[in-house]
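User: Hello! I'm new to structural biology and keep hearing that structure can be predicted from sequence alone. Could you demonstrate with DUF2971 domain-containing protein? Please show me the input and the output so I can see what each looks like.

Assistant: Of course. The first part below is the input, the amino acid sequence of DUF2971 domain-containing protein. The second part is the output, the predicted structure written as tokens.
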Amino acid sequence: MWKIYGSPGAGVAVVTNGGRLEAALSSNPESLYLGAIRYVAPGTIEFGNPNSFDTILVKRASYAYEKEVRLVYWDTNNMHDSLESASWNETTMRFDGIVEKDDPPVAGRSFDCDVDVLIKRVVVSPFAPPWYLPMIERLREQLNLHFPITASRLLAAPPIA
């Protein structure tokens, strides 16, 4: 995954968990939802009672190696009811006065996050140049953060017994 998601030669992995994520975001009054991604084959038909998050928490089966989770915020205060001012017309057997809303969705949302609580540690890519880890350490210090930073041991020689 280093080669897939890290830039050529460099990249970092942020290590955290659900408890840290919850604690780091706890100062926000909004409800946030964490869900595991379900990986399904194209053309799969599923039966049951889907909920609103089904389309957000699904990816193609070919990405199952990612073992992804997603944090979701859903602002339902701005929902539009196109039938709110509509009335049923018995003659045409249709609704009259349907109002379509063409407002574009609002892009992005900021939340308070305690980064030192969120991050358990940062792991630097085994393909990173030698100057990369010290640069990440300096950046952490400049931002007054305190999580540990380590180099990946993925390409290290195995221990000799």
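User: So the tokens describe the shape?

Assistant: Right, they're a compact way of writing down the 3D structure. Reading them back into a model, for example: The chain has four helices and nine strands.
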